[in-house]
Amino acid sequence: MTEILKADLKNIYLASQKIKEGKIIAFPTETVYGLGGDVFNPEAILKIFEAKKRPKFDPLIVHICNFQMLEEVVVEIPKEIEKLIQIFWPGPLTVVLKKNEKIPSHVTAGLSTVAVRMPQHPIALRLISLSDRPIAAPSANPFGKLSPTSAAQVFRGLEGKIEIILDGGPTPLGIESTIIKPEDGKIYLLRPGSICVEDIEKIVGKRLEIKKVPTIEAPGSFPSHYAPSTPLFLLKGKKIPEEFKDKKIGILAFKSKPEYGKFKKVKILSPKGDLLEAGKNFFSYLFELDNSNLDYIFAEKVPLKGLGLAIMDRLKKASQNKFI
Ligand code: TXA
Ligand code: MG
After folding, report:
1. Residue 136 pLDDT greater than 70, yes or no
2. Is residue 198 exposed (0-12), middle (13-18) or buried (19+ Cβ within 10 Å)?
3. N or C end of the chain: smaller count of CB under 10 Å?
4. Strands lying side by side in the sheet with 232-234
5. Average pLDDT rounded to a whole number, residues 212-230
6. Sign of dihedral through CA atoms 138, 140, 145, 149?
7. 3-class DSSP assignment, residue 201
8. What is the mean pLDDT of residues 134-138?
């Protein structure tokens, strides 16, 4: 049975005991809910993969609560990365570095690197600290589906598969962490996320590189991901093709109610046109549209700057790059 527990100190402590026993639990971070297990316990790691039906080749992010823990996870920290983590941690920046041999290969899908981040959410930090070890955690959703930003959404996806969901309310940012990787003197952006690319570039004084061909390294970068069950299309302009005339359509609009088309349900990401607010609402609005018995979901494009880059990345994957 899966229980949703209010994330007070008593229950965070209970969850930390479960982690120590090799069980897996869901908990809030500032980005999305994570499904956590003891990084050093291969059985716990296998449970995470099973609960999510996640392919074994897709590595997990390791969550730490202080800089001391970082030493148990990675071998070395390049200077540029040191600077970035001093500025952005705790926070939604994930760095991929050479892994410490203590980290079981299940966590990193056999790669010699490990993805690590120090979350900012007080419940996540408290949980890691009480567990007294780093916690490996992917987003707490079945593989390929929408990322959960509330305990209820975790429940819907993983009911019966985990014992405990720590409920810390809706996650404040709503979009996953930005993932970067230093390599050959360059820094690669593996996944746009809640830390804006522009802010990272300002600090390192150079542009982030993008890998041309998505590699197995970051399956989050494969074309189909973050997908609702209802087919989703991205709108090129402000016209709905004739063939959709009699269909039940919901729209995820950016900042105002569309004056074109006829929609059964309208969700507006941010009436102020604020990308931070849009990010916070993004997954929960998609969940709502997905559960509204619609034939199709249409989504408007958002500006390709700041957080808009991460939102467009998720929309392209949710639509499998289908524009109409
Ligand atoms: O905000 C977040 O990052 C959330 C919260 C829970 O922390 N976590 C999250 O994890 O989004 P997940 O598993 O859904 O996405 C992690 C991504 C995957 O696309 C994975 O392929 C990539 O990180 N990744 C993990 N380890 C990697 C590595 N060693 N090299 C390259 N990519 C890696
Ligand atoms: Mg995920």
Report:
1. yes
2. exposed
3. N
4. 232-234, 296-299, 249-253, 265-268
5. 69
6. negative
7. helix
8. 98
Residue 94 Cβ inside 6 Å of ligand 1? The answer reads yes
Mutating to test ligand 1, I would choose from 31, 56, 61, 216 the residue with most ligand atoms within 8 A of its C-beta, which is 61
State the ligand closest to the CA atom of 28: 1
3-class secondary structure, 38: strand
Count other C-beta atoms under 10 Å from residue 47's C-beta. 18
Please indicate whether residue 96, judged by its CB atom, sits closer than 6 Å to ligand 1: yes
Nearest to 30 by CA among 133, 156, 170: 170
**Residue 242 DSSP symbol:** G
Q: CA distances (Å), 125 to each of 64, 78, 207, in order?
A: 8, 24, 31
Asked if 311 and 279 count as a contact pair (C-beta separation under 8 A), the reply is yes
Nearest of 221, 226, 218 to residue 95 by alpha carbon: 218
Is the model's pTM score more than 0.90? yes
